[in-house]
Amino acid sequence: MVREVEDYFGKWGEHGTVDLKQELGLVLMRIANRCLLGEQIRDNMFDEVTHLLHELFENGLHMASLFFPYLPITPHRRRDAARAKLGEIFHEAVRARRTSGRAENDVLQKLVESRYADGRPVTESEIAGLLIGMIFAGQHTSASAAIWTGACLLSHGDGRHLEAAVEEQRQIIFRHGRERVDYDVLREMGTLRCCIMEALRMHAPANVIIRQANKSFGVQARDGSRYAIPKGHTLVTSPAVNNRLPHIFEDPHVYDPSRFGPGREEDKVGGKFSFTPFSAGRHVCLGEDYAYMQIKVIWSHLLRNFELKIVSPFPDEEWEKFIPGPRGKVMVTYKRRLLE
Ligand code: HEM
């Protein structure tokens, strides 16, 4: 991840103006290609795979697709064509990896080596499906979270949240030196983590979580009223509402990363379902740690190496999508610096 991020931002000039949305989308795509799919796809098919994933996201994330996934409309036809082509590419990549006998250090390799409990190997099309599922689950969500983190840091709190995040980087460079950015160092970035959590709380990339009741049960609300949930009923909860409940989060409409810091820890105030951008329970996001890690790698690099200013209005939310991101461009000016 670190190498991909350094290479990508190494190509920026001394100063300039960029659309953060486009830049972070691309750098995350490079990380996904490297860490999940492997160097072979990244080096030979990056543009094609990026284009097909873009087709999949642009045409498959509308609310209509969630409730009527097989509606015969043009976006769904384009989504399905992109899914079929990606399936072919990943299928071929799995076959090539198996026949080459080479072992790489990526998620594709883990899947190629994995077996079911009865010893049966996972098939090529199953692996292709798992890879597409993982990228679908992780790409747009991480891009949305990374962009909101930047938009919030650069817009809210009169610069004091940004300065706190920069100061943390200064301290870390002082302790470990500029060159060392590894798993342990990234885990020390508590202030940055709180900034990401707060962006996720206010702008959760998944705005509906849906479950079906496998058995009948009852729930009691805070005001004492009771509800019976019959077996087979569908339940929907929204992190956008859950993460702004005023009895859990103080001043819920204010961007305040310190609410997650020592002494407050508002993500734990109401128990394990207080903070739900990654859902919770049995189907909690499997990529949560990976997502924090890649957003930290990106933002620690940007904070250390650039002075940034947002020059477009604070973005609206794309509420018509079930993985909403910031609407329109998020324009930012940058100037290189070396944080000491
Ligand atoms: C900030 C980034 C991310 C957010 C906000 C997020 C959010 C979520 C949410 C809310 C769910 C539950 C969906 C539901 O139950 O209906 C989920 C599930 C999942 N996520 Fe993530 N996700 C993120 C990144 C990732 C990444 C990077 C990966 C993989 C590389 C990933 C893989 C998965 C998988 C495999 C599931 C399904 C888990 C299951 O059903 O058991 N996610 N994610």
TrEMBL record:
The record's section on InterPro entries has:
CYP450_sterol_14alpha_dmase (IPR050529), Cyt_P450 (IPR001128), Cyt_P450_CS (IPR017972), Cyt_P450_E_grp-IV (IPR002403), Cyt_P450_sf (IPR036396)
- Positions bound to heme: 285
Domain of life of the source: Eukaryota
Q: Which family does it belong to?
A: Belongs to the cytochrome P450 family.
MF terms (GO), sorted A to Z: heme binding; iron ion binding; monooxygenase activity; oxidoreductase activity, acting on paired donors, with incorporation or reduction of molecular oxygen
Which cofactor does this sequence's record say it needs? heme
Official protein name in the record: Obtusifoliol 14-alpha demethylase
UniProt source species: Triticum turgidum subsp. durum (Durum wheat)
Question: Which CDD domains does the UniProt entry name for this protein?
Answer: CYP51-like (cd11042)
Recorded hits in PROSITE patterns, A to Z, give: CYTOCHROME_P450
Instruction: Tell me the Pfam families matching this sequence.
Output: p450 (PF00067)
Keywords, sorted A to Z? Heme, Iron, Metal-binding, Monooxygenase, Oxidoreductase
